[in-house]
TrEMBL record:
The keyword Repressor does not apply. This is RNA-directed DNA polymerase. One of its GO terms (molecular function) is RNA-directed DNA polymerase activity. Residues 229-341 form the Reverse transcriptase RNase H-like domain. It comes from Meganyctiphanes norvegica.
Length: 585
């Protein structure tokens, strides 16, 4: 058996029961005899009087914890063909449990007998027997669940602001230990994680100070987690935001005659820059795939319910999944990978998915070198920019977008009368929907009011398209891939924009005068309507600003034919087409 070192979470999951007994093994490593020969030689210590060869395992040996833990795992998992003892072991700390007093006594009796048979000794002064509540591995464990030790959280809350990377790593290490009890921790600590990189200079700013205080606030308000019980119904809830993923593993329990979800563990992670550019349906699929793999030890071989607020995933990850169609390649791969799990996927409303949604949407200030972020209502701060004063442009509040992520004002070329607002779409197209003066509610309302798209909405709801209507027949090629979510028509992962909002959307996206190729790359990933490509080309070709500053090819001067030095050196030939039926004789 190889030397293994189990994690604290794996051991804490074994402590479900009514009673617990904590046993501390005396001396720990010094109770292990060292094998004579090579092992003793490599542990030898040089002294003035010669070599001191230890007979027992010494403290400070790198492999000592793994060797000790492997021996303890063998001790509790089997002895003379007997069943495993219900106990958690981390180095010299052991916690024996049981569902009731009789089972606990049987487990404790068997474990003490195995200690005696192995020649191991316990420190009786540190042992606690038949406790309803114990402190184990920095957490308080009782029959209702697991919660953080107030002493642990108090130490984190009282930590001062780190002055260097070493102290910051210590703080982040403490936060990682309590991560299962704190929703959305990974997103909250993102500005702090950026400072521990060796390539980053340690500069403590307002973003880091805000994240540091928020981490301490979350540590002081941690949640109690329920003991995992495979006999209870298991529910995995996932959600995704443009910046992170969130998941909550929970049990269905009956409280006061009502079925409720009790959390077993929280998990969240930040998205990589490449993952942030995914479409929303892909991010939701990534949240499902990541959450199932993260909680694999709980979900493997057990049936569970998968809750998501993205109805498109019901078809992709459901039992009758259509791996063809409009789903992207990554969604197909994730669906195939999840086939080894036994689950039923269910759609829940976004308002009902508050836990996982909050895990993925906790605010994180993202700095950018392209410009500074300004609130929509702060017109004074915008007009105070020197570039705006020099150009003489007056910004009105109703002209500002609802959520401008990054704003910068520069002259266009050498013209001081026109400005270009770049980074409105920028280099992360997934922010396009957030910064547009449109919302899903507006699109849903205009879709119902639109004459053509209102009929399309009813056709998608009915599942039948009337091809006799010339305007509706334009959707016949993609009708099977259309579906409705929250009153909005989707083509795959793209939003179908009604007629009255198409021109407005293209004008807003073309406000910074990006080219037709860039607009197609951005718009066609998130929006769709028939003829969208030709509309983009038409807008780009008719734009006055683009035509004024468009790059033109340099003029090609006329070159005379080289002078001929001898007859027939250069011959010119022309063609004559005789149309008439007769010719000269």
């Amino acid at each position: 058996m190889p030397h293994v070192y189990t994690s604290c979470n794996e051991e804490l999951d074994k402590l479900r029961g009514e009673y617990r007994t904590c046993i501390d093994l005396k001396g720990a490593f010094k109770q292990i005899m060292v094998t004579p020969g090579f092992s003793q030689k490599i542990l030898a210590i040089v002294t003035p009087r010669g070599y001191a060869v230890p007979q027992r395992m010494q403290f400070g040996i790198k492999t000592a914890p793994g060797i000790w833990n492997s021996n303890m795992q063998r001790l509790i998992h089997g002895h003379d063909g007997k069943e495993p003892v219900k106990a958690a072991v981390i180095v010299d700390d052991v916690c024996v449990t049981g569902n009731n007093a009789e089972e606990h006594f049987a487990n404790l009796h068997e474990f003490i007998f195995r200690l005696f048979a192995a020649g191991l000794k316990a420190n009786i002064s540190k042992c606690k027997f038949y406790q309803n509540q114990v402190k184990f591995l920095g957490k308080i464990v009782d029959r209702d669940g697991i919660k953080l030790d107030p002493a642990t959280t108090s130490a984190i809350v009282k930590m001062p602001i780190p002055k260097d990377q070493s102290r910051l790593r210590s703080f982040l290490g403490s936060m990682s230990y309590i991560g299962r009890h704190v929703p959305g921790l990974r997103e909250v600590r993102a500005p702090l994680d950026a400072l521990v990189s060796p390539e980053t200079k340690f500069i403590w700013g307002p973003d880091q100070d805000k994240a540091f205080n928020l981490c301490k606030s979350l540590a002081g308000n941690s949640a109690r987690l329920l003991h995992f019980d495979p006999k209870k119904p298991i529910v995995l809830t996932t959600d995704a935001s443009p910046h992170g993923l969130g998941a909550c593993l929970s049990h269905k329990v009956t409280i006061d005659g009502k079925m409720r979800l009790q959390p077993v563990a929280y998990a969240s992670c930040s998205l990589k820059p490449s993952e942030q550019s995914y479409a929303q349906v892909d991010r939701e699929g990534l949240a499902v795939f990541w959450a199932v793999k993260h909680f694999k030890s709980y979900l493997w071989c057990y049936p569970f319910e998968l809750h998501t607020d993205c109805s498109a995933l019901l078809k992709i990850f459901g039992p009758k999944n259509d791996l063809g169609g409009c789903a992207s390649g990554r969604l197909n791969r994730w669906a195939v990978s999840l086939m080894e799990y036994s689950f039923v996927i269910k759609h829940i409303k976004g308002t009902s998915n508050s836990v996982a949604d909050s895990l993925s949407r906790l605010p994180v200030s993202v700095s950018s070198d392209q410009g500074a972020a300004y609130p929509a209502g702060d017109v004074t701060a915008l007009t105070a920019l020197p570039e705006i004063k020099k150009i003489g442009v007056y910004l009105q509040e109703d002209h500002l977008m609802a959520e401008i992520k990054c704003l910068a004002v520069n002259p266009v070329g050498n013209c001081q009368e026109e400005i270009s607002i770049f980074k409105v779409i920028g280099y992360m197209p997934n922010e396009a929907w957030d910064i547009l003066p449109l919302s899903l509610e507006d699109v849903a309302t205009k879709t119902r009011e639109d004459k053509l798209y209102g009929r399309l909405l009813k056709s998608v709801e009915a599942g039948v398209l009337d091809n006799s209507e010339k305007e509706l027949s334009r959707f016949s090629g993609v009708f099977d891939d259309l579906y409705i979510e929250d009153g909005v028509v989707y083509f795959g992962s793209r939003v179908v924009i009604p007629t009255c909002q198409q021109a407005r959307l293209l004008e807003e996206l073309h406000y910074s005068h990006i080219g037709a190729v860039r607009m197609k790359y951005t718009v066609r990933r998130y929006f769709w309507w028939p003829g969208i490509t030709s509309d983009i080309d038409k807008l780009s070709n008719n734009c006055t600003g683009c035509r004024k500053f468009r790059k033109r090819p340099s003029p090609n001067p006329l070159c005379p034919w080289p002078f001929s030095r001898r007859p027939m050196e250069r011959v010119h030939v022309d063609f004559l087409n005789i149309v008439a039926a007769w010719c000269y004789s």
